[in-house]
Design a protein that fits this description.
The strands form 8 sheets. The protein has a 7-stranded mixed β-barrel. A 5-stranded parallel beta sheet has the order 4-3-2-5-6, with helices on both faces. It folds into 3 domains: 266 residues, Aconitase, domain 3, CATH 3.30.499.10; 176 residues, Aconitase, domain 3, CATH 3.30.499; 200 residues, Aconitase, domain 4. The protein has 25 helices and 30 strands. The chain is of the alpha/beta class and 780 residues long. α4 links the parallel β2 and β3. Bound molecules: FE3-S4 cluster. The site of FE3-S4 cluster has 14 residues, from α7. Its EC number is 4.2.1.-. Keywords: Iron, Iron-sulfur, Lyase, Metal-binding, Mitochondrion, Transit peptide.
């Protein structure tokens, strides 16, 4: 990141990354002319592999690219968390390359529980997961990847503090990676297979997103925070409203936000399904770069915005904001001055209730009035600003002799935040008030919350968190725990009251001496007065050169890690002799195909995790859950994964037949890897969830949809299936019709079923090679 030695006759020097960005941007401008661009478009299109081809071939002179073109992008870096990094690295290893093509980092944050407090939990977590951490650390050394061990921090906070720079494009193997959009980056959450494409230097494909503009005016009120903006938006957009969109914020209200406030809003764009979210670069962004000891980055960002210097036309400048007059596919205007604090939940982040209505809603809905626990921090809300605002509330309550009535937990987002809050006395304020400071890890946010308040599984209860997600069982594994999302300030005030019906704006608490106490409005500081304390940054291993002599640590007897074997290539003919493993009815999400919870520990061991394949799927012919019948063994009754395992051993390839939106939910690549590992060649259904459909192709499974959905009724478990035209279609780069010839089990009756596909030219190559990885491994 040192300044380039290349000199220009006009304008300042640019560092190499910005020189690349600028050169690409100039190409974008050459192709698109004076078209007004949003910030997201400027950054995204300036990372295209081939600007001219991408912007012109798919569009009407570059004007209707959104939602139409397939962009081939070259990201600047990849960030991986420990749970998803395992499969990403196992796949990368099988490509046989000596180093990653672009910088990457691993963050050990998901595998530590939240129970007794930072030190005890960290020690226990390291012991329980030692072999996974050893594997990740050795792979980092071998391939020259930055390694942030347990305790160093949560991926999104660490990325924001260390790697996020305006104008970059990053991929992260976690859905909340868009957090870095607060620093004007395009950061997209992906699965391991996508990460590997970027790690080997292959272009990464994305359907050009549409842009949802959110224009902010006014200024947030005393108790209202950036978190309330996104909670409010989630209520308006719902969990699917952002699908296919980048959410771009603009307008004068943006300048009233801190950098970390912008990051919080971007983080939770994942809750409305957005591809990512982004804010312009502001004075607050520059202040944050300086506070995190990256003053040179602020100088570089300013240099880029002034380049190429006086005399150039206005379009020649790359500015970290939308052009005046840029068009949005959808536009929402929000006056921040009119926004209220919100509480969202239970069980879904888009069930938004303004604070003023919450007491009434709790009572009408019969939700618990007792608040059992309040949890603040996490990757979403553990900034210096968040924590010092909370501290101001706690200090006032303390002066009045009050203590929280609910158990109160604090999760710092990173070692840097933790050390700075410790240095500045904030952590002492929390612990003196009875708060429990947990490790700088995901812990309670990802189901590793071990309750110490005696609430047993199955008991309905309410908790309040400043996290981002609140699906059933998300925090403590108890499906009856109602998790409401709110700002850290609201969580804290309500924890003192111990009730879900308390409104700190209007209600009072009674002090031990019998007086009425009303919380004053929270007051905090955007950042520390001196730069952040880096704490035990030496824990992290950064900027290491690859070391080919390192043996990646995987024990042959490990139950948690297993090297991957390449999948077989597609045969040089159509498929024949397939059998329908199971015909599924109803929802079949990625959770149905590859369950989480206790199975998470097998994420790096494909054979072991495959024992959960489709284990909550409903058999359409019997109505039973996870029950299948072996057509090749007198209809013996077994579980679905058992039948898949039996057929794998026999060398019997198979397919699944399903209904609509197969694979909805997350980008979980295991939901594609596992069926492939067990012998699936086709999934045939009424419709697919888009990301899962792509994931299947990447693993060499062909997703097909019924041309006539009524044909679903004609195929059953155990029927034999052959393809007609599939091989020719793949060889023709995705062009041509495909049919299935079905031979009914028992009667031998035969008929043909026309099917549809969305296989592109590149995807046809993946499938023929056996998987995208096979193709990448041979340099395809
Ligand atoms: Fe971790 Fe929760 Fe964020 S799981 S990465 S703290 S969303």
């Amino acid at each position: 990141r040192t300044a380039s030695t290349r000199s220009y006759t006009t304008g300042p020097l640019l560092p190499p990354a910005y020189e690349r960005l600028y050169n690409k941007y100039s190409e974008v401008r050459r192709v698109l002319g004076k078209q007004r661009l949003t910030l997201a478009e400027k950054i995204l299109y300036s990372h295209l592999n081939n600007v001219e081809e991408s912007l012109l071939s798919n569009t009407n002179n570059g004007r209707s690219i959104r939602g139409v073109a397939n962009l081939k992008l070259l990201p600047d870096r990849v960030n991986m968390q420990d749970a998803s990094a395992q499969m990403a690295l196992l796949q990368f290893m099988s490509c046989g390359l000596p180093r990653t093509a672009i910088p990457a980092s691993i963050h050990c944050d998901h595998l530590i529980i939240g129970e007794r407090g930072a030190d005890a939990d960290l020690e226990k977590g390291i012991q329980t997961n030692r072999e996974v951490f050893d594997f990740l650390e050795s792979a980092a050394r071998k391939y020259g990847i930055d390694f942030w061990p347990p305790g160093a921090g949560i991926i999104h906070q660490t990325v924001l503090e260390n790697y996020a720079l305006p104008g970059l494009m990053m991929l992260g193997t976690d859905s909340h990676s868009p957090n870095a959009g607060g620093m004007s980056t395009i950061t997209i959450g992906v699965g391991g297979a996508d990460a590997v494409e970027a790690l080997v230097g292959a272009p990464w494909e994305l359907k050009a997103p549409k842009i949802l503009g959110v224009k902010l005016t006014g200024r947030l009120g005393d108790w209202v925070t950036p978190k309330d903006l996104i909670l409010h938006l989630a209520g308006r957009l719902t969990v699917r409203g952002g699908t296919g969109y980048i959410i771009e914020y603009f307008g004068p209200g943006v300048d009233t936000f801190s950098l970390t406030g912008m990051a919080t809003v971007c983080n939770m764009g994942a809750e409305v399904g957005a591809t990512t979210s982004i804010f312009p670069y502001t004075d607050a962004s520059a202040r944050y770069l300086k506070a995190t000891r990256r003053e040179q980055a602020a100088i570089n960002a300013s240099a880029l915005q002034q380049f190429p210097g006086a005399g150039a036309s206005d379009d020649a400048f790359f500015r970290f904001r939308a052009d005046d007059g840029a068009e949005y596919d959808e536009l929402i205007e929000i006056d921040l001055s009119k926004l209220e604090p919100h509480l969202n939940g239970p069980f879904t982040p888009d069930l938004a209730t303004p604070l003023s209505q919450f007491k009434k809603t709790v009572q009408e809905q019969g939700w618990p009035e007792k608040l059992s626990a309040g949890l603040i921090g996490s990757c979403t809300n553990s900034s210096y600003e968040d924590m010092t605002r909370v501290e101001s509330l706690i200090r006032e309550a303390d002066k009045a002799g009050l203590k929280p009535k609910s158990t109160f937990y604090i999760t710092p987002g990173s070692e840097q935040i933790r050390a700075t809050l410790e240095r500045d006395g904030t952590l002492d304020t929390f612990t003196n008030a009875g708060g429990i400071v947990l490790a700088n890890q995901c812990g309670p946010c990802i189901g590793s919350f071990v309750r110490s308040d005696g609430v047993k599984k199955g008991t309905p209860n309410a908790i309040l968190t400043s996290y981002n997600r609140n699906f059933r069982g998300r925090n403590d594994g108890n499906p009856e725990t109602m998790n409401f999302l709110a700002s850290p300030e609201l969580v804290t005030a309500m924890s003192y009251a111990g009730t879900t019906t308390f409104n700190p704006l209007t209600d009072t608490l009674t002090t031990p001496s019998g007086e009425e106490f009303r919380f004053p409005a929270p007051r905090g500081r955007e950042g520390p007065e001196t730069p952040f304390d880096e704490g035990r940054k030496s824990l992290a291993v950064l900027s290491q050169e690859p070391d080919a002599s390192v043996q990646v640590a995987i024990s042959p007897t490990s139950e948690r890690l297993a090297l991957l074997e390449p999948f077989d290539p597609f045969p040089e003919s159509d498929l024949s002799g397939l059998r329908v493993l199971v015909k599924v009815t109803g929802k079949c999400t990625t959770d149905t195909i590859s369950a989480a919870g206790p199975w998470l520990k097998y994420k790096g061991h494909l054979p072991n995790i495959s024992a959960n394949t489709l284990n909550t799927a409903v058999n359409a012919e019997t109505g039973e859950v996870n029950v299948a019948y072996d057509a090749l063994d007198n209809e013996a009754q077994v579980t679905i994964p058992e039948l898949a395992e039996r057929w794998k051993k026999r060398g019997q390839p198979w397919l699944v037949v399903a209904e609509h939106n197969y694979g909805e939910g997350s980008a979980r690549e295991h939901a594609a890897l596992q069926p492939r590992y067990l012998g699936a060649r086709l999934i045939v259904c009424k419709s697919f969830a888009r990301i899962h459909e792509t994931n299947l192709k990447k693993q060499g499974v062909v997703p097909l949809t019924f041309a006539d959905p009524a044909d679903y009724d004609r195929i059953g478990a155990g029927d034999e299936v052959a393809t007609i035209g599939l091989y020719d279609m793949l060889r023709a780069g995705g062009k041509g019709d495909v049919r299935l010839r079905v031979t009914k089990k028992g009667t031998g009756e035969q008929f043909e079923v026309p099917v549809k596909h969305t296989v592109s030219e590149d995807q046809a190559k993946f499938i023929l090679a056996g998987s995208a990885l096979n193709l990448l491994a041979r340099g395809g």
